[in-house]
Structure formats: C-alpha cells, structure tokens
Design goal:
Blueprint: H1 12-26, H2 40-46, H3 50-57, E1 61-67, E2 70-75, E3 80-86, E4 93-102, E5 106-115, H4 116-134, E6 140-144, E7 162-167, H5 170-177, E8 188-193, E9 198-199, H6 200-203, H7 206-209, E10 213-221, H8 224-227, E11 234-238, H9 244-255, E12 265-269, H10 277-282, E13 288-292, H11 300-307, E14 316-323, E15 326-336, E16 339-351, E17 354-359
Parallel strand pairs: 1-6, 6-7, 7-8, 8-10, 9-10, 10-11, 11-12
Antiparallel strand pairs: 1-2, 2-3, 3-4, 4-5, 12-16, 13-14, 14-15, 15-16, 16-17
Organism: Caenorhabditis nigoni
Protein name: F-box associated domain-containing protein
Length: 372
C-alpha cells in the first residue's frame, strides 16, 4: 500500500530532508516507524536537481486565490502551493495543511497544529508572504474575505488582468482597486459587496471603467454623467439612479459610432419601470429602429434568436436598431420592468447574392438570475 508523503517540498531544506528520510527508510527502519512510502515516479521527482526544483517552484506567480480558510498560488510552471485552515468542532486547535503540487510529477503535503488564538495571525502571515512574492507578476486574483488582513502592504499590481473579489465593505474593495495599473484595462472584473451600497467613486479607476468585462450584481449609485464615463465591452450591474434619457443616449452613441468598436453587451438592472418612458424617448430620436414582439415571434428563421431574450422576462419592449451609416450592423434593445438590455446581435452577411443582416445571439453574455 502506498501512502502520500506528509512532507512539503517547497524549499531546498525540505527537499534534502525528504531525500535523507527515504534513504534512511530503505536502509531498514522498522515498519512501525515507516511513515513514508513513495511510488517510483514520485521518488524520481525527488531526485531532480535542486536547480530544476528551484526553477519550477520559484517561478513567477500568475494566479492567487484567497478565501477565509484557504490560500492558493499558481506559478507559470504549473506548480501550485496551497494552505488550508481547518478547525474541528469544539476544538481549541486549528490544523493547517500545506500542499505542493506539480502535475504529473508529485503531490506532497504537510500538516501542523496551532491554537485557535494564533490561527488568524498565521493566516495573515502567509497572505503577506504570498502577496509580496506575487504582486509584480500576478495576472489573476480572486479574493473572498470579510475584510483585508491588518498590515497588508502592496505597492502596485502591475500586470493584473483578472480580478474577482467579494467583500463586506466597499473600503476593502478600494484597497485593491487603488493598486491597479491605470495603463492596463482589466480583462475581467467581478465584484460582490455584501453589506453596503456602492458609490461610483468606489470604482472610478481607469482599469475598471475600461475593463473588457464588468460584472457587479450590486446597486451602484451613479449619476447620468458618471454612467457615460464607463466604456466596457460587456457589462452588467444594478443602477437605480439612472434616467431613461441617459440610457437612450447610450443607444444614440452606438448608432453614431461613438461607442468602442468591440462592444457586445450592456445590462442595467433597475427598480425603475422604463417600459413606458423609453418608447416615448425613442420617438424623439431619428433611429432606424424596428420593433418586435419577441415573446410571440413566430417566423421559424428567427424563432431561436428571439427565444433567447425570454430569460430577461416575457414582458417588455424590443427593438432592432441599426447604425446610422450602416444598416447591416445592428443591436437588440430590450426594456422590461426590471432591466435595460443592449446586445450586439446584427452582423452583415450575404443572402441570395445580396447583402443582408444575420441575427446572432451572443454565446457568452453576462447574466444573473436576479433579472428574471
């Protein structure tokens, strides 16, 4: 029977210790003291040169995941180091499991015990060490905490591209956003803030306002002017303070080629019912717009396309609106009792030798079940 080694291989010292332990066992240590049995392929991994191990395990950290009881970091060489804190029920102690994985070569772990009174201190010590090592290179960061650890210091997250954070307080969010590189727009930003309403000022950083994907299923207090500062390829959020006029101004900007070229989606959830207001505002614009009853659309060619909008609710107003200077490029605009949706759906094509519009519902839209 083979047992997983209970020693971590995250330093040269540990590596030498495990090698010596294996040699000691192979020289005849009694079975009752034999705590290590290695598969041959794992033993071969241990015998790699210290240079190779150092290169693989000390490579740049490109991903960090930190939650209340776990910390995990991934390097560019697929090496993963993790820590898990576990407190048994009715116990005064906490177990910390440290694990090192480099697939398919090895997977080793070590476990130690500390008092509950020291568990938070130990957790924060590991966080500070991981963040210090990774801040200049990390590209993906996922955080799920109530608050930030004390005395956490970060200069700049120079290369960060993907940021997913869950916090109770907006102030904890700002700590991380203020350290983003303003010259790099995030590829993806996901935020949940449990306790308070977010103000636009909490998120007013270039990396966020220009992020490719912006997903914040929280109520953001913003003015009409602040709304127009946002320039995301895809975005979904709640905003109860926006007027129907500024939402139509967004559509006008797309029609007149004033929105980023790769725009795909805008979804605003609101407690305001714009089903009456927006159609009235729409009439004041000289749009090339066609209104459809998407819930009762029966032409077979487009039945599958229109059925996709039912996930936003069955009752609402729907228009297909084309660009002012290009009738073969269009967007779908849906207004229901809870949300305002704009999707890039109409693309130029040729049908029977003539230029036409092909309607395509985006496959990777942002969606949250609170909109139903």
């Amino acid at each position: 029977m083979f047992h997983r080694c209970q020693l971590s291989l995250c330093s040269k010292k540990d590596n030498e210790f495990v090698k010596n332990t294996i040699l000691c066992i192979t020289e005849g240590v009694s079975a009752k003291n034999n705590g290590i049995n290695m598969r041959p392929r794992n033993l071969a991994a241990l015998c790699k040169s210290d240079y190779e191990q150092n290169y693989r395990e000390q490579a740049a950290v490109h991903k960090i995941i930190m939650k209340d009881t776990t910390i995990q970091m991934h390097t560019t060489t697929t090496f993963i180091r993790s820590w898990r804190f576990y407190q048994p029920k009715n116990s005064d102690h906490c177990f910390v499991t440290s694990k090192s994985v480099l697939e398919p070569d090895y997977c080793y772990s070590s476990k130690f015990q500390i008092s509950n009174s020291n568990s938070q201190k130990e957790y924060e010590k590991i966080v500070r060490k991981v963040v210090k090592k990774a801040e200049k290179d990390v590209e993906t960061l996922e955080i799920d905490w109530k608050t930030n650890p004390e005395d956490l210091k970060i200069e700049k997250l120079e290369k960060l591209k993907y940021l997913k954070i869950k916090f109770w307080k907006p102030e904890s969010v700002e700590f991380w956003l203020s350290r983003l590189n303003p010259d790099i727009a995030l590829e993806e930003f996901i935020l949940q803030c449990w306790e308070e309403v977010l103000n636009f000022e909490h998120l007013a950083y270039p990396s966020i306002l220009n992020a490719s994907s912006f997903f914040v299923p929280e109520n953001i207090v913003m003015s009409d002017e602040q709304f127009l500062r946002m320039s995301n390829r895809k975005s979904l959020y709640r905003a109860d303070t926006l007027s129907s006029k500024v939402l139509m101004e967004f559509v006008r900007k797309w029609v007149d080629d004033e929105i980023r070229e790769d725009f795909e989606q805008l979804t605003v959830w609101t407690n305001k019912n714009f089903v009456k207001e927006i159609p009235e505002n729409l009439e004041s614009y000289n749009f090339n717009a066609i209104q459809y009853d998407y819930a009762r659309w029966n032409i077979p060619l487009y039945r599958e396309f229109f059925s996709q909008f039912e996930k936003f609710g069955y009752y609402g107003k729907f228009w297909q609106i084309s660009k002012r200077n290009d009738p073969f490029n269009s967007i779908s605009v849906l207004v229901t009792r809870k949300n305002f949706v704009v999707l890039r759906t109409g693309f130029p094509c040729f049908k029977n030798g003539r230029q036409d519009v092909k309607l395509v519902f985006p496959e990777d839209i942002l969606f949250c079940n609170i909109y139903v």
